[in-house]
Amino acid sequence: MHAITPKASNTAIMFGTTRSHQSLLAILVFIARSPLIWKKCSHDFIGFSALKKSKKSTVRTIDEITITPEGDLLRFTFKGNGFLHKMVRILTGTLIAIGDGTLPPEVIDQVLADKVRQAAGETVPSHGLFLDEVYY
């Protein structure tokens, strides 16, 4: 569902109980400091997709990313004007890696500038990913 161009898409990722709160805090601190994530932005997100190249534009606008705890789960909610193939899963994997300290926060800017998929975090599994709502 993330490969179509919906206005809103959600994904939830499970963590262990202890780790979820530490990771959530680290991810939220990163988001609060990152102009890319905490306010509306338009960028070429080819580096955060499974596409090697595209004849169509790979510029997308992210209106909002929210992360909310739900028991032992963290729910990642992405709202935007469209998403590239696996874009939400790769962005989620990158945010988790930043929260865990595996990747530095600067990796977001690096991937956007260099457009190199390999620099981003891993692609999280698709289970838990669903289309919540589409706006026209």
Please supply descriptive tags for the structure shown above:
136 residues, globular, 5 strands, five-stranded antiparallel beta sheet, alpha+beta, disordered N terminus, 26% strand
What do you see in this structure?
The chain is α+β, with helices and mostly antiparallel strands and 136 residues long. It has helices at 17-33, 35-38, 87-100, 107-114; strands at residues 8-14, 41-44, 59-70, 73-80, 129-133. A 5-stranded antiparallel beta sheet has the order 2-3-4-1-5. A hairpin with a 2-residue loop joins strand 3 (59-70) and strand 4. Helix 1 (17-33) crosses helix 3. The protein starts with 7 loop residues before the first strand and ends with a strand. Mean pLDDT is 76; it is low at 1-18.
State the helicity in percent bands: 25-40%
The protein's oligomeric status is single chain
Which strands sit side by side, in order, in the main sheet?
2-3-4-1-5
SSE-based structural type: alpha+beta
Low-confidence stretches: 1-18
Mean pLDDT: 76
Cα Rg: 14 Å
SSE map:
Elements: E1 8-14, H1 17-33, H2 35-38, E2 41-44, E3 59-70, E4 73-80, H3 87-100, H4 107-114, E5 129-133
Antiparallel strand pairs: 1-4, 1-5, 2-3, 3-4
Helix pairs in contact: 1-3
